[in-house]
Amino acid sequence: MRSGIPDRPASRSIMLLYQPVFFRAMHLTSKEERTLAGEEGPGRQNAMELLVAIGDIYGARRLIPITSAQVSGASFKTIGDAGIRFLEDFSKEAKATVRASVNPLGLDMKRWRSMGIERDFRAKQARIVSAYASMGLEPLYTCTPYLSGNRPRAGQHVAWAESSATVFANSVLGALTNREGGPSALSAAIIGKTAEYGLHLKENRHPKVRIDMEGIPPGLVPLAGYVVGRIAGNRIPYLPGLSLTQDEHKAFGAAMAATSAVSMYVHTERGRASRVDTSRVEECVSLPESELVECQESLAGDSSWDLVTIGCPHCSQAELRSMAKYLKDRKPRKDSDVWFCTSRAAYAACPDAVRVLNRFGKVLCDTCMVVSPIESMYKRTASDSGKAMVYLPTLGKQKATFRTTRQLLEAISR
Ligand code: F3S
Question: Which atom of ligand 1 is nearest to the CA of 162?
Fold first, then answer.
């Protein structure tokens, strides 16, 4: 004990927060019991304690194997010094046993200087990166792991933490995951299992509210997700007639997850209609186009932004190429900074598009406008993302302005 502080590793202290206060209902196999008893070392024991505690809280009966994990809590801005201590303690003792990738960091590992990131922030971020690396997590640093190789198949159970990726996995890929917290996804990665509750159970994947959308005006898919999330609250929405591209699903689901507590929507694309059980729908709601336009007006802010950001969730290859095609023969305005946020994989796959976009701003990897420390650099940020409209004012301390992607491209070029 030093200065009244118990000599307990940070990872252990955080695990204790999850200790169940009631009788354990989960059935564990004898191997899982041995892990829990510490026979496989303290790292796996900590991870197992956390999974069991969560399983007990949510009434899970057992642990189930997962094929992958996706871990959030990778930016120094969001986890701070306590998070670093937790990860460094954990990393001494534990290794991932299934494929596991990491969410965006607080900076671009290569372009951090040009972002205006301070050395101290960079040094703290490097410790986080090295802790995850020593645990064997894949350094994807993206919220779109499903576009960077970590793409589960329909029916597979996974433990993903990033809210936008979770909703994509459940709703578009047909995988099964709850919206994990960072420590629980990390524990699942280490044990290779997660507690079977929530969206891992088929009976919890039925829609409770039907939302009939009249149509979605051009560029407003992210706001459709934003409004659907507000209507849905904590109920899985059923969206008959919804027809989106993969990139539109990415933007729609991210916004929906940001304004609601649900991590899944049900649609009828690609013959899914026959598999939808609508018998538990409790309410039907019409969503006219005019409501999306009203939402657009309410988020319009003004045009006095000092940063334009595109890529929440991270831009896909198709999005990078499409923007480059539009901008190719135009000239940059340079009235404000511009960030195109993407994954390292998409960046590497389309060098020509990246070259064009870099004339108009910075193509950044490993990070995004929300988890990087933009509050120390900018005051008003424009974005085409419904999710960013929720988090820029809170996590980013920004005045936020919504514009469609096309409007932003027009604004940054002539
Ligand atoms: Fe991704 Fe950052 Fe948006 S993690 S979903 S770009 S807030």
Answer: 4
Phi, psi of 230 (to 5 degrees): -65, -40
Does 190 contact ligand 1 (Cβ within 6 A)? no
Read off the amino acid at residue 323: M
> The domain 1-201: what is its CATH number?
3.30.499
For 230, 240, 249, 270, 360, the CA distances from 274, given in Å and listed in that order, are 27, 12, 20, 10, 46
Same fold, 1-201 and 300-411: yes
Minimal-distance CA residue to ligand 1 atom 3: 312
Ligand 1 in reach of 309 Cβ (< 6 A):
no
Per CATH, the number for 300-411 is 3.30.499.10
Q: Mean pLDDT across the chain, nearest whole number?
A: 93
Low-confidence ranges of the chain (pLDDT < 50): 1-10, 13-14, 16-17, 20-21
Domain layout of the chain by residue ranges:
1-201, 206-297, 300-411
Residue nearest ligand 1's atom 6 by CA? 312
**How far apart are the C-alpha atoms of 259 and 138, rounded to whole Å?**
29
Cα–ligand 1 centroid distance for 322 (angstroms): 20
| pTM, full prediction | 0.93
Kindly give the distance from the C-alpha atom of residue 166 to the centroid of ligand 1, in angstroms, as a whole number.
12
